[in-house]
């Protein structure tokens, strides 16, 4: 009850943030063919988020609408095939634990393209990530070893964005790490629960991600 009250109040606050002259961005994480139905790393229910995200954009309240795009070279070391490993194994990669994924989002491939149903008319910026063969990049802000930034924070700071709403795929990987870095970089950060789906390699991964994000200061809307 109280949770719901707080959530509704926060939604109202977000709607009014414009009156306070707060600038707001929507970040749409990795809505690409390989993460959607029939893709190489299909996230269950992924396609259901697309109409919801399109509706958010139609509300026309964002100062910036940013897409992230997983954009791997074909020899990327997060792929099981490039390490003589099976999908689902975990290896150490340059000091960071790395889950072995199927080949996905290879640069210039169909799988790496944004889903055709995602309306891109209001998109103002695209951040590509995961380009370094040696390290994965779940967060839209930086590589998994926190070595290289993607330029997202600089872009947001340049445009004086204070509030972020985040949606996309997958809840338990790229969405989670993007949300946590958003908080760490000082943004008021809201995740739209209806605008995201989990891979759920383990059945509770999505739930645990939500719990961790709330604990670390992400507001979950929806
Ligand atoms: C993602 C696994 C590997 C994601 C990207 O977008 O969540 N997950 N690469
Ligand atoms: Zn990837």
TrEMBL record:
Which pathway is it part of?
Cofactor biosynthesis; nicotinate biosynthesis; nicotinate from nicotinamide: step 1/1
Statement: the UniProt record of this protein carries the keyword Transmembrane: no
Per the UniProt entry, the Enzyme Commission number(s) are 3.5.1.19
Asked if the record carries the keyword Iron-sulfur, the reply is: no
Q: What class of enzyme is it?
A: hydrolase
**Span of domain Isochorismatase-like:** 25-220
Cite the InterPro entries for this sequence. Answer: Isochorismatase-like_dom, Isochorismatase-like_sf, Isochorismatase_Nicotinamidase
Keywords attached to this entry:
Hydrolase, Metal-binding, Pyridine nucleotide biosynthesis
Q: Where are the transmembrane segments?
A: none
Q: Which GO terms describe its molecular function?
A: metal ion binding; nicotinamidase activity
BP terms from Gene Ontology: pyridine nucleotide biosynthetic process
Show which residues constitute the signal peptide.
none
**Similarity comment:** Belongs to the isochorismatase family.
Under PANTHER family, the record lists: LD05707P, PYRAZINAMIDASE/NICOTINAMIDASE
Matches recorded under NCBIfam families: PRK11609.1 (NF008623)
- Protein name per its UniProtKB record: Nicotinamidase
> Where does this protein come from, organism-wise?
Chryseobacterium potabilaquae
């Amino acid at each position: 009850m109280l949770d719901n009250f707080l959530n509704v109040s926060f939604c109202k606050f977000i709607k009014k943030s414009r009156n306070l002259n707060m600038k707001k961005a929507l970040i749409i994480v990795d809505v690409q063919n390989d993460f959607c139905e029939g893709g190489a790393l299909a996230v269950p229910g992924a396609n259901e988020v697309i109409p919801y995200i399109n509706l958010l954009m139609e509300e026309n309240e964002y100062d910036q609408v940013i897409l992230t795009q997983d954009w791997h070279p074909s020899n990327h070391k997060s792929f099981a095939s490039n390490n003589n490993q099976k999908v689902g194994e975990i290896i150490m990669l340059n000091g960071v634990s790395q889950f072995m994924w199927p080949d996905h989002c290879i640069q210039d491939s169909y799988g790496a393209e944004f889903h055709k149903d995602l309306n891109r008319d209001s998109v103002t910026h695209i951040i590509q990530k995961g380009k370094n063969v040696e390290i994965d990049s779940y967060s839209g802000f930086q590589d998994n070893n926190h070595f290289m930034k993607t330029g997202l924070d600089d872009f947001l700071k340049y445009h004086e964005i204070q509030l972020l709403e985040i949606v996309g795929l997958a809840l338990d990987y790229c969405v989670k790490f993007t949300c946590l870095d958003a908080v760490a970089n000082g943004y008021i950060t809201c995740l739209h629960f209806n605008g995201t789906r989990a891979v759920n390699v383990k059945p509770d991964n999505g739930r645990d991600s939500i719990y961790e994000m709330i604990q670390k200061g992400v507001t979950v809307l929806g």
